[in-house]
Amino acid sequence: MARDMSALEDFVLERMGKTKLSGVSMAVVKDGEVVYQRGFGLADRERGIPATPETNYCIGSATKSFTCLGIMQLQERGLLSIDDPVEKFLPLEVKPSGETIRIRHFMSHTSGIPALAYLENLLRYHHGAIDYSVPVANLDDMLAFVNGAADWAVTKPGERWFYLNEGFIMLGGIIEKVSGQKYAEYIREHILLPLGMARSFHDYDLAKGDKAMATPYALGKDGRHIAREYPWGQAQADGGLISNALDMAKYVTMYLNKGRGPSGPIVSLESIAAMSTPVIRTPGEDIATGRPAAFYGLGLNISDFFGHKMVGHGGAMYVATAGMRFLPEFGAGAVALVNGSGYAPLNMVDFALALLIGQDPWALDALRTEKLLEGLTGYYETYKGTHRAEVRCDGDYLVVENKHNYGSVSSTLVPFDLDSGHPRFYVYGSGHRQVVEFFCEGDRVQLLHERYLYRKTGKLQSRG
Asked: CB–CB of 40/265 below 8 Å?
């Protein structure tokens, strides 16, 4: 295991360096045991405190699975049904195409309402990225906010996947209405503490008393880390849980144990099966094959992993990101938590799980594409250096830029065929689409762009 995970450590440290992540905490479970745990980098840069497996972070939208687990518990107690109309519990007035939104529609992001972006607005305003905010501070505010968007519904409930944070705030409201407890209290009493997740919580007071809270960081334009605070109390059922890698390992183990915790069932096998069964296809698809990238169940994503079922969820809170996945067939799972953004923790999780089951992580679609694009970046020249260009990554795209003393001209390349020996891209301009081609033979990389043939002459210099 130590030999296998050394490849993971190289990968994580290299990605942290490239994307300026401050700290990462990971744990891997197999057959009910934590078989790997590790902290990377710094939990607190100002005080020089390293990240460890015990370091606490906000897990963002991975919280949604806890919310759905709470709903399933209440259904098992006969206090609600996921087929109940939301309006049975809350004064929701929106009826997409005249049809009723049911609890299961919010759980599966199939209400028919597109993302209204309250959380995106909240996070960006809170962290100083924008100067305007929507005043949504509690459930009543959220209901007024959503009820005002009745004519924004796109489809009937159940027809299409639209990721809707607002719906999960209302699910939290239903938990409060039905249980008679505050949402955070319910989740802590009925899920966290029974699983032994004693250092996982939603509350500001508990965070301030915690011994190992990571400082969340935004990344400034100059590449420097800016210490921030979470928007305490304003995002809960949709993304506000604080946890650590070892606590999250217990949570993943519960799913692998079919709903059982260390002292007995948390929820039934039937409820676990319902949460992890595909309900709706999500929009993404593989570039090469066109196959669906993932499906969504009830608070959980479901996807293919080397021909095996993989279940999990990611999370992003602008200054903290998270990923958890598990492979039921192998009794295996992994989590990664980060006090920043800029690189997907789910890629780290997938890398770890691939190693664990004896697969090549670089065969995964996301990592294969990432590696290929990085291999194409660099400095390029035409014959005898008459024309020079720089190729760099911009997310999942490449940018070709020709610089001169008066400015620069750049083109964004959109991938459509990522064969490793002959990757091809589209570039758009003047109402037309043109193919841009790379030819890779050993160490030689050539670029055919418009009229020019370029050859790669060197790697990009680090931008610090």
From this structure: no
